[in-house]
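Q: What structure does this chain adopt?
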Amino acid sequence: MRVFITGATGFVGSHVARYYAGAGAQMRLLTRSTSRLDALAGLDAETVVGDLRTPETLRTALTGCDALVHVAADYRLWVRNPKEMYAANVDGTRELLKLAREVGVPRVVYTSSVATMGFKTDGTIVNEDTPVSLVDMIGHYKRSKFLGEQEAIQAAQAGQHVMILNPTTPIGPNDAKPTPTGRIIVDFLNKNFPAYVDTGLNLVDVTEVARMHLVALERGTPGERYILGGENLTLKQILDRMSAITGLKSPTMKVPHAVAMAFAFFDENFTGKLRGKEPRATVEAVRMGKKMMFASSAKAERDLGFKVLPVYHALRSAIEWFLAHGYAPQP
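A:
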C-alpha cells in the first residue's frame, strides 16, 4: 500500500507515520521547506516538499497513492494573522480532497479534532450526536477545524471515501513543538503552574490515536465522525497525576475564571500585540476553559475496535521525553 501522509513532521502525524511504517506501507510524507525533520528520523519514506496553502503542487505526489491520510493542521490557540489558519485548515483541506478525487486516490482519512464537538459548561459527556454548530466554536482554531471538517463531510456525502477521526487531547512522547497540551506539561515541569482553573480535558494515548488512522481505512464508514478519547479528567486531576509521577508539588490555588480572563487580556495585548510574541494565556483559551471537554469514545470502540487506555503510561512517557530532551530540569 502506498500512502500520502500530511503532518508527519508534527506530533500526532509522526506517530501515524511510524504506525504505517510498522505495517509495511510505502509512504510519501508532506514536509514544508521550513519543517524540522527530527520526527522522521529512521523512517524509510519519500519526503515531498509542499504546502497545504498551495495544494496543486501536491498533484504528482498524490498520483498513484492508495490512500491519503490528512493529519496536518495549523494548531495554535493564538495566531497573529487568522487568515493563515483558515487557509491551511479549511481551504487546504477542501483543495486537497478535491485533488485526491481528481487523481483517483480511493480512500481518505481526515484527522479532525474533538474541538468540533458541542461541549457544555456542566461537564456533560458529549458524543458525535451532541448538537453543535459554528456558533458554538470559540476561537479561530476551533472555527477553522469545524469548517474543515464540514468540507470532509460534504466530500463524503458527494461520494468520496472519507473517514473522519476526532482525537481528544493526545499525549505521549515526541511532542517537540510542543502542542498547547504539551506546554501544560512543560510548564508544570518548570514549576510555572502556580494555580489552576476549573476546567476539564479528555486525555488520550497518542499511540492508540495513530493505530486508528490505519484501522479506519478498512473499518470506518465514509462521512462518519469517530471520537478517539481516553480519560475525562479535570485540570486539577491532571496536575495531581503529574505530581505523583514526578514528585513535584501540584498547585492548590484555584483561580476564578474572571481573574484568569483579566490576566489573559493583559497577556494577549501586551505580549501578543505589543511585543509580537505568543502569549502564555489568551482570552479565547480562557473562554474555552469554561467548558468541560469531556467526551465518549463508545462509537469508535464499537465500530473501529478503539481501546480506551489508562492515561498514566502516556502521561509518564510524555514527561520522560520532555525531561530527556531538555525542556525542563530533572526533578
